[in-house]
Amino acid sequence: MKFAIIAAGEGSRLQQEGVELPKPLVKVCGEALIDRLIRIFRKNNAKEIVIIVNQLNPLTEQHILKLKEAGLASDIRMVVKTTPSSMHSFAELAPYLENEEFCLTTVDTIFNEEEFAKYIAYFKTCNYDGCMAVTNYIDDEKPLYIGTDSDLNITGFYDDKRTCEYISGGIYCLRPNALSTLKHCLEQGISRMRNFQRALVTDGLQLKACPFSKILDVDHASDIAKAESFLTAQ
Q1: What is the CATH number of the domain that holds 25?
Q2: Helices of type H across the chain
Q3: What is the pLDDT along the chain (234 residues), one digit of tens a residue?
Q4: Which end of the chain is more exposed for a tag (fewer CB within 10 A), N or C?
Q5: 57 Cβ neighbours under 8 A, 6+ residues apart
Q6: What are the backbone dihedrals phi and psi of residue 3, each rounded to the nearest 5 degrees, phi first?
Q7: What is the bridge-based pairing of β-strands 2-7 and 207-212?
């Protein structure tokens, strides 16, 4: 199984709040966000880790290159490109994800490692086209709400709460057939990951919601302390 990290955002909100490092190199509990994901993915038997970084800020690229020079990144493939959205970053990674199941997330996603391991193990053995990490912890400016049936099969993705219990956690386990939907979205000029997820439902892919107790994103300087508090409390 392959793993993929979208680390191509500019982290502008963090910079405006005085955080000088690019988001992938921001440390939580003494560990850079990108290093944390690489470590966790390896613990879950990653065959390859594909990462896209922003060419406008070379520090993240330099960080990965130093790992390679030290012989610590033989399983990492890096794409260096600035993209207009996370979905376009996903598209740049897609050619390296075509032949087997994969897990994709953004670099700033914070989650419980044991829950993640169970999530990956479930996906490897289930028959779903995709398993989406979800949470009922809402600390997001624009959450994407997840509609489900009683068996947690995903029925829709919504910008408003409706009767939804969960929101998207920004972690996606998908099989290669999902890349056809991605291609169609790009051809139709559709952008944003939430619209890609909606297209998965429209295309008839069977998706399962997999609840996590809490998933956080590090978008603001204050989120660093929240993430550290969450991780140290485990």
Answers
A1: 3.90.550.10
A2: 12-16, 33-43, 58-69, 86-93, 113-125, 178-187, 193-202, 221-232
A3: 999 999 997 667 888 888 889 999 999 999 999 999 999 999 999 999 999 999 988 999 999 999 999 999 999 999 999 999 999 999 999 999 998 999 999 999 999 999 999 999 999 999 999 999 999 999 888 999 999 999 999 999 999 999 999 999 999 999 999 999 999 999 999 989 999 999 999 999 999 999 999 999 999 999 999 999 999 998
A4: C
A5: 10, 22
A6: -130, 150
A7: unpaired
Task: Give the count of domains, the chain.
Answer: 1
pTM for the whole thing? 0.96
Going from the C-alpha of 134 to that of each of 59, 103, 118, 127, 198, the distances in angstroms are 31, 14, 14, 18, 15
Task: Say how many C-beta atoms besides its own lie within 10 A of residue 136's C-beta.
Answer: 13
Three-state secondary-structure class, residue 145: strand
Residue 232 to residue 201: CA distance in whole angstroms:
37
Distance, in Å, from the CA atom of 48 to the CA atom of 29, rounded to the nearest integer, reads 25
Beta bridge partners of 137: none
d(CA 214, CA 200): 24
